[in-house]
Amino acid sequence: MKVLTMGEVMIQLNPISSGPLRHVYIFEKHVAGSEGNVAIGLSRLGNDVSIVTSVGKDEFGKNIISVLRSEGVDLTYVIVDPNHPTGVYFIQRDFPFPGSIEVYYYRHNSAMAHFPPSYVNSIDLGGYEVFHISGITPMLSSNCEEASMKLLEKSIQANLIVSFDTNVRKKIFHERSAAILKPFIQQAHILFTSLQDMNFLLDQNNTNLEIVLNDFMRFFKLTDEKIIVIKQGSKGALVVNKGKQYYEPSVSVNVVDSVGAGDAFDAAFLSFFLEKEDVKIALKKAAVAGALVTTVRGDFEAFPDRSEIEKAEKLWGGEAMR
Ligand code: KDG
Known about the structure:
Elements: E1 2-6, E2 10-15, E3 27-32, H1 34-44, E4 48-56, H2 59-70, E5 78-81, E6 88-93, E7 101-106, E8 130-134, H3 142-157, E9 161-165, H4 177-187, E10 190-193, H5 195-202, H6 209-219, E11 227-231, E12 237-241, E13 244-248, H7 261-276, H8 279-293, H9 306-316
Parallel strand pairs: 1-4, 1-8, 2-6, 4-5, 8-9, 9-10, 10-11
Antiparallel strand pairs: 2-3, 6-7, 11-12, 12-13
Helix pairs in contact: 1-7, 3-4, 5-6, 7-8
Bound molecules: 2-keto-3-deoxygluconate (KDG).
């Protein structure tokens, strides 16, 4: 399957200790960013993936390019911007309370934030079957909003399957986010979301998933043709399509770093669903991939290939996977 994705790939500074960042002294450097994580996951599963992104003409940009290249992601549409730096973000863990995870972005002036919308005209969609993007990209800047909207329209015109993850990130989302993301939510064939994301976009806080999903579908005028994948972290995942519901519990593992699990889930679900058109198989593989990436630091490092997913399924098998 040939997939195009668009998003910011950043350098992640991942602390090796917990607590407030002012007292963290040692960070591990990783390459991260939602759509880049999905691209790497899809590539490890044997798909041809290209990413549309922009990095700075700096050491971090070189780092990102070499990681994407070594992971087999096509770099035809990667801009190297001499005037703006590669985006960076830090993770803070277990502060102000145990279990909390907060991210601190240094990306408002990044190369990706300055992505030129006119560049989309030069993207040749010939041969691509799928376009994947998340709500993060249109929210990065007005340039990114315009560019991602143009690429969405171009993908629809070229009859690509559109995959969209709402991916709400409270630090960059705002009161206009629902309006900006509306065309993506409405035109996606496959929509990944969560209870929290739907609540945020509806500007409400309701814990009843069924009610929230109904409200969400009504608000965005979604028909039941859409494949809606609701990720619920350790509570599993639910797919709703044509009046049917499919549920898959999560796999219980020792979580070392949960950041990136949702992207791994998306990549595996997309790859297996579009290959076999079987929601149940795709959900099982996605649950395994999502769990495995949480077992080591970084967003994508532990993303499994096909044989590793099979091994994990055999090892954990049946009830042990619950
Ligand atoms: O899904 C993981 C991403 O959230 C992380 O890598 C950083 O892309 C990122 C973002 O914008 O928060």
